[in-house]
UniProtKB/TrEMBL annotation:
Segments forming a coiled coil: none
Keyword Disulfide bond attached: no
Protein name, as recorded: ABC transporter ATP-binding protein
Molecular function per GO: ABC-type oligopeptide transporter activity; ATP binding; ATP hydrolysis activity
Length: 596
């Protein structure tokens, strides 16, 4: 991973600093392969000069003087040049593809690891589509561009040096006339660079917004269909696509400008040489062969020159992408493990919150929350929507950091534990079980390979997963589908419970784990949860008070504070918020029963 990453703000300094970053982190350790590729490119490039050099004996010795022996050596010489070019060109392409792919893979791996280390709040301001575009799109641009630049510098530069040497050898004055206009290109190409970098940055940013839109459309396909939003979504997408086309075209205008200027300058050079050199040939001072060799060298110099001219524009395009990557890579996570962490507690621990305050931006969400969840027992969190119940779970697992107060697990402050140790204490089962697009088995094992089949079966039975496996074509090896879409809500939750059983953590967090289920599925999932919570410190969030009345303790939350804590009976007897909630729910369910 990068150690000294350049700050992406200073554009002038950043062009070299950015290349340095690329070199240090991703290319330096492959310099052996790179040198091989560059040598092959250099050989490939030098073949052009040889080719142009062969034109002179072809005209003067073979065609003009009629030398038959020369016919063969010139013919075989040209043939040899093409064979060497073919071999070196294909070998360097294969090598370069390999190096580029390896470097891109490293970059993507590093980026993903870095992104996953960032605080959860980062992902709220950076939608998935934009991040996907950085990991895939920007890395792709950078890799294709550095490859082209390296090729231009190794192969095309050598070609140019060789071709100009041939031209100089034929006539230095002709050569001077041909290239006299080229220094005039420096100023326009410098001006165009800033323009390209800006436009390329915009184009990449729009690409990120397009990916976000697509991500939202594909994830929300059912609500889109149900609300007849196809036209609305298509129009929003059209708007972005139009912006993207315009930004890409503007970038390519900038990129095309320098090669176009080179074409014009080369044309002028030819005109000058033809007028000046033509007179020398007519007067017999120079041979046709010399002119043709010069002409061939200049013609062959055309393409390498254009590619070298386009190089700065391409680099600006890559630099825009590098800046976007560095903008993310330079963000550091704020929620970290302490340098000297405490050991994690053993067994089912007690959990204590003391005066915990927590804000989302300006919004105070927890305002001095204080309660204790007894070790190995079930504690319920109840309260109105938005009271801060789920936020407590996020504070416990350090997905968010409180602004003040103390959270302890068995008397150990959670911020003094290693993050992986802390999170390893919890299993979280929510209403929205996060399943991956893998088989059910993979979704349950989550990479654990040492689990015996008997233990897996035990977990499947306890979570009531076994009940629905016969309905699936491949049983446990059936695909769960994207986000578990091949399963029903209740089935997804049972998979999540089986997962939690195998994780076998001492603390269990259940966030509305049964709220989306019908009565029968709820009963099944509830019995699986009872099995799961036995002997663990369990915190349950539930709106339906009937599901928490047997909890060891019930914490009543109100606007970020703990309004009360006690057993169901104690809270009813005290007649506070809990008793009001209970009366409300009880009268509703009674009305429901009366209606039937
Ligand atoms: N990531 C977030 N960014 C900004 N505000 C948030 C975020 N998550 C929650 N909030 C706000 O924090 C407050 C508390 O949310 P929380 O999810 O903890 O409530 P809750 O008691 O669990 O509600 P519910 O019972 O509806 O799930 C709400 O006002 C919510 O809008």
């Amino acid at each position: 991973m990068a150690i000294n990453r350049p700050a992406p703000t200073d554009r002038r300094q950043s062009a070299t600093a950015l290349f340095w970053w690329l070199w240090q982190d991703y290319l330096r350790h492959r310099k052996g392969l790179l040198i091989c590729a560059m040598l092959l490119m250099a050989i490939e490039g030098s073949m052009l000069a040889l080719l142009s050099r062969m034109v002179q004996p072809m005209f003067d010795d073979v065609f003009a003087a009629g030398d038959k022996a020369a016919l063969y050596w010139v013919g075989f010489g040209v043939m040899g040049i093409f064979v060497i070019r073919a071999l070196t060109s294909s070998a360097q392409r294969i090598l370069m593809t390999m190096i580029q792919q390896l470097a891109a893979a490293d970059m993507r791996r590093d980026l993903l690891r870095h992104l996953m280390s960032l605080d959860s709040s980062f992902f709220q301001s950076h939608p998935p589509g934009q991040l996907i575009e950085r990991v895939q799109g920007d890395v792709g641009v950078i890799n294709s561009v550095w490859g082209s630049i390296l090729t231009a510098l190794s192969r095309d530069l050598i070609s140019l040096v060789g071709l100009f040497s041939v031209a100089l050898w034929i006539d230095w004055r002709w050569t001077l006339i041909a290239v006299v206009g080229i220094p005039l290109l420096v100023l326009p190409s410098l001006l165009v660079q800033q323009f390209i970098r800006r436009r390329a940055g915009q184009a990449r940013e729009i690409a990120g917004r397009i990916s976000t839109r697509l991500d939202e459309v594909f994830h929300g396909i059912n609500p889109i269909k149900l609300n007849a939003l196809e036209d609305y979504q298509a129009k929003r997408y059209d708007g972005l696509i139009d912006e993207s086309v315009s930004a890409e075209v503007k970038t390519s205008v900038g990129q095309a400008a320098v090669p176009a200027l080179i074409d014009i300058m080369t044309g002028l050079g030819f005109l000058g040489v033809l007028i000046y050199g033509g007179a020398e040939i007519i007067s017999g001072e120079k041979t046709n062969g010399e002119f043709m060799a010069f002409f061939t060298a200049m013609s062959l110099a055309f393409d390498p020159l254009r590619r070298l001219g386009a190089m700065s524009g391409q680099w600006q395009r890559a630099a825009a992408s590098v800046e976007r990557l560095l903008a993310v890579l330079n963000i550091a996570p704020t929620i970290l493990s302490p340098p000297v962490p405490l050991a994690r507690p053993d067994g089912a621990p007690e959990i204590t919150l003391q005066n915990v305050e927590m804000n989302y931006g300006e919004l105070p969400v927890l305002r001095g929350a204080t309660f204790t969840a007894a070790a190995g027992k079930t504690t319920a969190l109840v309260g109105a929507s938005g009271a801060g119940k789920s936020t407590i779970f996020n504070v416990l697992t350090r997905l968010v950091e409180p602004s003040s107060g103390m959270v302890r697990i068995d008397d150990k402050p959670i911020h003094e534990m290693k993050l992986t140790d802390l999170r390893g204490l919890f299993s979280v089962v929510t209403q929205d079980a996060a399943l991956f697009d893998e088989t059910l088995r993979d979704n349950i094992l989550l990479g654990q390979t040492a689990i015996e089949e008997a233990r897996l079966q035990q977990a499947l039975d306890a979570a009531h997963v076994t009940d629905f496996l016969p309905m699936l074509s491949d049983g446990l090896d059936s695909p769960a589908g994207p986000r578990g879409s091949n399963l029903s809500g209740g089935q997804r939750q049972r998979v999540a419970i089986a997962r939690a059983l195998l994780r076998n953590t001492p603390i269990l967090l259940l966030d509305e784990a049964t709220s989306a289920l019908d009565t029968k599925s709820e009963a099944i999932v509830q019995s699986a949860l009872d099995e799961l919570s036995a002997g663990r410190t369990t915190l349950v969030i539930a709106h339906r008070l009937s599901t928490v009345r047997n909890a060891h303790s019930i914490v009543v939350m109100d606007q970020g504070r703990v309004a009360d804590q006690g057993t169901h009976e104690e809270l009813l007897a005290r007649g506070g918020i809990y008793a009001d909630l209970h009366r409300l729910q009880f009268s509703k369910s009674k009305e429901g029963a009366d209606d039937q």
